Amino acid sequence: MSAAKRNVRLGALSAALAGLAGAAYLIFHIGFRPILNAALSVGWGGFALLCLYGTANFVLLGFAWAALVPPFSGRRAIIFSWSRAVRDCAGDLLPFSQLGGMVIGARAAMLRGIPQATAFASTIVDVTMEMIGQIAFIVAGLVILAVHLPGAASRVPMIQSTAVGIVVAVAAVAVFFVAQRRGFSAIERLAMRFLPAAAGHAAAVDREVHAIHAAPARMAADFSIHLLGWMSAAFGTWLALALIGSPIPFAAAVAIESLLCAARSATPFVPAAIGVQEAGYAVMMPLFGLPAEIGLAVSLLKRAREIAVGVPVLLSWQVAEGGHALRGRNREGAR
């Protein structure tokens, strides 16, 4: 293992341990029993409903990705929905950052017959459109917060830092977008490190990116679906709170989830946002009249849902990887 890869893994492990320690402190400080009781109050039926919601969200985000890569068909929609599920589950459950999950998601699409250049290029543009949709979602959340809780922005440092983060995010998206239009040597180097096979087709990836940019209607569709996907994330929070028995208006759920998304985006190298998610919910819930333990219960339910849905998804990915390797060996043996 190279020194660079070892340092990346050590950094991710350190971040995960720090986040885990922070989450453990919150749970210990607030009390494990009330958190667990609130989480268990949803029952098996409620938890199954949350898992169904999570699966449907993968399909929605897969449709957003597929919109960039015509022709659209049911089979391709399934491929991109599954690949998107692999992308998110890898980032949530495996010791990878969000960036690592993106690379694994592109790899999953390749396993199902999507050309390497198309998979990697569409991932790049899809992530960009998702970031733009997230910025719009966060702005909407801040507006809701300012209208319903006009003094909150001056009381909560997290909200102040989010406003600054929006400016930084807009600048980052602009730089990323310009890099796509004018070539992306940095992305090529990333591909060379994590996905050598795709790096060998860097010129083809560049052409695919430009082809997608030449079809603004595809990008607009991708953005629109992603914005709907962010609203769907708020619905997941609203649903979890309703099942616990602590319902809030949907607009409040949008505000809570948007601030949490901002916090997660600001810490992309923390695997699964461990600690970040828990702290975010614990801070935001009291602003809307709910105790911090309810926020931690929502976080616990989301973690449990990620495991229940993510483990089968990752197992299916490993089966696909094994089948691909076996077919490769068979082809070599036939020569």
Brief digest:
By secondary structure, the protein is mainly α.
The total of helices stands at 15
Q: What sequence of helices (H) and strands (E) makes up the elements?
A: HHHHHHHHHHHHHHH
Oligomer: single chain
**What proportion strand?**
under 5%
- The shape is globular
Unreliable spans are none
- Biggest sheet character: none
Number of domains: 1
CA-CA gap between termini: 32 Å
Helix fraction bin: over 70%
Please state the structural category: mainly alpha
List keywords for this structure.
single chain; 335 residues; mainly alpha; 15 helices; 0% strand
Which helices and strands occur, and which strands form pairs?
Elements: H1 3-30, H2 32-40, H3 43-66, H4 74-93, H5 98-111, H6 116-148, H7 152-155, H8 157-182, H9 185-194, H10 196-199, H11 202-213, H12 216-244, H13 250-265, H14 276-284, H15 292-334
Helix pairs in contact: 1-14, 2-15, 3-4, 3-12, 3-15, 4-5, 4-15, 5-6, 6-8, 6-11, 6-12, 6-13, 12-13, 13-14, 14-15
Describe, in plain words, how this protein is organized in 3D:
With 335 residues, the chain is mostly helical. Helices cover 84% and strands 0% of the residues. The protein contains 15 helices and no strands.
